[in-house]
Amino acid sequence: MTFWNRLSNRLRFEARFPLKWSHDWVRLPLTWRHFDLYRRIHRDSYRCTGGFPELVNCRDYNDKIQWLKLFDQQPRTVLCSDKLGVRKVVHDLLGEGFIPDLYQVGDHVYDLDFDSLPKAFVLKTNHDSGTVELVRDKSTLDRTAIETRFEKALGTVFSLAEGEWAYAYIPPKVFVEEFIEPENPAPPADYKFHCVEGNMVLLQYITDRGLDPKEQMIDRNGRDVGFVFDHRFHHGDSFSKPLQWERMIEIAETLAAGFKYVRVDLYLSGDRILVGEMTFWPMAGRYRSDGQKTMGRYLTFDRSTVHPTCLHLLPHPRA
Predict the structure, then answer these.
(1) Separation of alpha carbons 154 and 163, rounded Å
(2) How far out from the chain centre does Cα 258 lie?
(3) Cβ-count burial of 273 within 10 angstroms (0-12 exposed, 13-18 middle, 19+ buried)?
(4) Cα–Cα dist 99/274, whole Å
(5) 57 with 79: CB under 8 angstroms?
(6) Is the dihedral of CA 167, 310, 262, 214 positive or negative?
(7) Which of 28, 43, 44 is nearest to 284 (CA)?
(8) Which of 11, 49, 198, 219 has a CA positioned 20 to 30 A from the CA of residue 185?
(9) pLDDT given for residue 50 in this prediction
(10) What does DSSP say about strands 102-106 and 214-218: parallel, antiparallel, or unpaired?
């Protein structure tokens, strides 16, 4: 997009935004404390789609995610969004044995003692999405490239422009944890349980990530419901209910209790059920597939009740 196109887009946004705010102000439980976040959400939506989200009568999944950013704010969302903090949540609610082993934590990559690490491990940051390195053999690791990439991520506030407010309140860390099944060419299958009002409504089952990723949307009975949610994936056909199916649902629902909507990511390694992370606003509510409209019909949470904005009660965010 050229400078003039960006300028024109910005001017159109500035002209239309006050009317949208005025319209929603009288129809939604908005306060002036919502204003900055509300503006970020609308600016990002306008930049990406040329339009605004519909928050009064949400049309689809993307709209409902924007509603949740504004009206299901809880301080514990920050802890559960933190990939280190969620480990404590899992331990407190489920006990031992449901998280990969943690080897090291540091403020910077150069705080880590690579010599003491096993041959295979996973390097992550706790405050964003996508800063992950799967290390199968540390002797081949390019330490300089890793340090450059991870230090840049540690200095970045993730997704604040998209309205994903919780990440701005997470103190950034780099950590090293157990590599699950490093002998396999692809990571273990992702079991992403979408939970509404504490109840599992659909599983997003993803296989062959990093190779030729495939997705299936599975209902509580283990049946493929026949649509692709994530536009980046092909439709798969390999899902079968694991022996641990009911226990996995129970774990996801235990972690999801008290939230209007959250996605709980689990993995299976042999008989082990492992919790990966909890995600409250997948893809920031910017899915481009027709499947996101279908997915929106499953998000039947109660929009007549809200949690008042809590951002002013949290420690000062990273700017």
Answers:
(1) 19
(2) 17
(3) buried
(4) 5
(5) no
(6) negative
(7) 44
(8) 219
(9) 86
(10) unpaired
